[in-house]
Design brief:
Elements: H1 11-19, H2 27-34, H3 38-50, E1 55-58, E2 62-65, H4 74-81, H5 85-88, E3 92-98, H6 101-111, E4 119-125, E5 144-152, H7 162-177, E6 182-185, E7 189-192, E8 195-206, E9 212-220, H8 226-229, H9 239-243, H10 249-270, H11 273-281, E10 289-294, E11 297-306, E12 312-316, E13 319-323, E14 328-332
Parallel strand pairs: 3-4
Antiparallel strand pairs: 1-2, 4-5, 5-9, 6-7, 7-8, 8-9, 10-11, 10-14, 11-12, 12-13
Length: 334
């Protein structure tokens, strides 16, 4: 179960909302307010601690979080969206727990009259995915995990470059939030001081002649707990470290949603062309020597930019070559 726009909520999520003020709450009071036993309260508290939250128990006082926690709140997100709220009022879904936001959005899209701008966010992902089969690691209740859908009348070939345009949109949202010094890494990572801050994953479904459904997943590191950090196999950073303060995820969600919807609208009308120059100017690897690893093959050359389809143009010893994302890993050449 999860929080849709009708605010259905799991018992665990209800307890967390009560604890989110950072004050002590007794097991008896929590049970009375929810109409459950103290044993059920204890069971749900255990679930919260297993998900990575620091919930302290003090005899005679009850339970409290290590620090106050701002949970995702649909009404707050809509308020932060301002004039754009009307575009999302019937299309924004919040969930306490999903296997992945992309999969959940695919389920919502199958039942929706219109997919364009349909969005969902989740506090917890059990099976979040990154590129090249990796898992997306995110401490529950502290990060931004969302997906947005859009249906294009043409075939999948017409949406090449979209994940790059989306990366630019997310970068702009992060900058609007107040982060400076971040940039893009082809094809769809956002780095800060060489460490990964955010990533995107586009699921594309459609026949060659169209229509094509794009479900775009976005993950932004708000705060990564110690146990989760040990599971990440690349340099990373979170907004808490950059800012030195907790993140207002509702404001950040609104900024990302607004930028993504605007990107989708422009991409639907004009393709990747309007984003190409801006993307290249924000690419941290532009004009740098890189190693591209594609299975057992490796290429070394200098990045010259991206083509009209979002392919990476690299000048190799034997001449220029264009690479497309797929199963390619890019690193700075030593």
């Amino acid at each position: 179960m999860g929080i849709g726009y009708n605010f259905r909520m799991t018992t665990r999520a209800e307890i967390l909302r009560m604890l989110s003020d950072g004050a002590f709450h007794s097991g008896t009071d929590l049970g009375k307010k929810l109409g459950i036993t103290r044993a059920a309260v204890c069971k749900n508290i255990r679930g919260l601690t297993q998900s990575g939250l620091d919930v302290h128990r003090v005899t005679g006082r009850g339970y409290k979080l290590d620090e106050p926690l701002t949970l995702l709140d649909r009404s707050r997100i809509l308020k932060q969206l301002g004039a754009a709220a009307a575009d999302f009022r019937d299309r924004l879904h919040l969930f306490d727990e999903v296997d992945s936001t992309n999969r959940r959005l695919a389920e919502l899209a199958a039942q929706a009259k219109s997919v364009d701008g349909l969005a969902c966010l989740a506090e917890m992902q059990l099976s979040g995915r990154g590129r090249r089969g990796r898992s997306w690691v995110a401490t529950p209740y502290h990060n931004l995990m969302l997906s947005m859908g859009w249906r294009f009348p043409g075939g999948p070939a017409l949406v090449s470059g979209l994940s790059l345009a989306a990366g630019l949109a997310v970068l702009r949202a992060i900058e609007e939030y107040g982060i400076s010094g971040a940039g893009l890494k082809w094809p769809n990572d956002i780095l800060w001081n060489g460490r990964k801050l955010a990533g995107l994953l586009a699921d594309v479904q459609g026949e060659a002649s169209g229509p094509t459904l794009v479900i775009l997943g976005v993950g932004v590191n708000g705060y990564i707990g110690r146990d989760d950090a040990e599971r990440i196999d690349q340099p990373w950073v979170d907004l808490r470290e950059i800012l030195g303060a907790p993140v207002d995820r509702n404001r950040l969600a609104a900024l990302v949603l607004r930028q993504l919807r605007s990107m989708f609208q422009e991409f639907a009308a004009k393709g990747f062309a309007p984003f190409r120059e801006a993307w290249s100017s924000r690419h941290l690897y532009h004009e740098r020597r890189v190693r591209l690893i594609q299975g057992e093959r490796e290429f070394v050359g200098t990045v010259e930019g991206v083509d009209e389809h979002g392919g990476l143009i690299v000048r190799l010893a034997k001449g220029k070559q264009v690479f497309h994302s797929g199963e390619i890993s890019m690193r700075v050449a030593g």
